[in-house]
Amino acid sequence: MEKKSERRPITLAASLAGLRLIGAGAVLGLALTVPAAPAQADPPRPPATTQDTVEES
User: Fold this and answer.
1) What is the DSSP letter of 53?
2) pLDDT for 18-54, tens place per residue?
3) In 3-state terms, what secondary structure has residue 52?
4) Gap between the Cα atoms of 52 and 48, Å rounded
5) What is residue 31's predicted lDDT score, i.e. its pLDDT?
6) Whole-number pLDDT of residue 32
7) How far apart are CA 39 and CA 32, in angstroms?
8) What is the C-alpha separation between 16 and 2, in angstroms, rounded?
9) Separation of alpha carbons 31 and 8, rounded Å
């Protein structure tokens, strides 16, 4: 006796929806990782001067 593996047919709409979900996850992952690298590489900025708030007489 041979057992046949039950294979359910997958519709084209379901497979495309899965691919879209995988693609969205990949884009989200890249969007979260790419901006983090340059932000850490920036040197610390000196505090802003307060020349604009000094009143001139």
Assistant:
1) G
2) 999 999 999 988 888 776 555 555 566 777 666 555 5
3) helix
4) 10
5) 83
6) 81
7) 12
8) 33
9) 35
**Structure confidence at residue 7 (pLDDT):** 81
Q: How far is CA 27 from CA 14, 32, 36, in A?
A: 20, 9, 15
Phi-psi bin for 53: left (phi > 0), alpha (psi -120 to 50), beta?
A: alpha
- Strand locations in 1-57 (E): none
Q: How far apart are CA 29 and CA 23, in angstroms?
A: 10
Rounded CA separation 25/32 (Å):
11
Q: Is the overall model pTM greater than 0.90, yes or no?
A: no
Measured between alpha carbons, how far is 16 from 50 in angstroms, rounded to an integer? Answer: 57
